[in-house]
Amino acid sequence: MNKNNISISRVLSTFLVLGFILLPLSQLILGSNLSELTETIMDTDVRDSIIRSMLCSGLAALISFVIGTPFAYLLARKDFRGKGLIESIVDLPIMIPHPVIGIALLSIAGRNHWIGQHLLQAGIRIMGTSTGIVAVLLFVGLPFYINAARDGFSAVPERLEKASRTLGASRSQTFVRVTFPLAWRSLLTGMIMCMARALSEFGAVVIVAYHPMVAPVLMYERFTAYGLAYSRPVAIWLIFLSLILFAALRILSRGLRGDNV
Prior knowledge:
By secondary structure, the protein is mostly helical. It is built from 12 helices and no strands.
């Protein structure tokens, strides 16, 4: 009796979860035909916005790798006072409303802030530029990379690093020859998660840079100006891109389970 109840609850839960996700998405996808999708992707504005979204998201993921890897390694290997607070700060961009992120970035990038003044003197503009878009996408995607990389480094046994050090390798040599080869899948997974999150960002981007348009902003503009029929094909292309990224994430995750020490 109990087993039957559990089975029924699992089936019901699976049905509800998959139905909640797939029903609106399938309705969206089936609402456009192949000719509409082809016509949409042939539109220069759509193609440019999707390419811009991919490039800016990819650059944000690459920057996350460069600046976030040493920090993630520190969080994985060291215990210190205030570590919990620092990890909470890293997660802040996940929790706060994203228009607030855009306003916060603009508040330090404007002429009235010393950081903004130095950026302008260096010829770097945030408002209304691709640089601003990358800054926003980095802000929202960085926590996903940091958390994935930290977990990957934590999974590497410290005894292997100590053995490498006792054999005469330096810290940097140990990291390159031992730690990184064992954790690289987690770092790559983190970059994909960072890029996937950045790809879908709208609320903060529209505050910092309405133009040049990324795909979510273009989709919003077409919805408000022309209605659902014009915005739907752009949304479908975005869904396809997200599906490709998360399929890659799932494949990497399966590899992690099989290869981790």
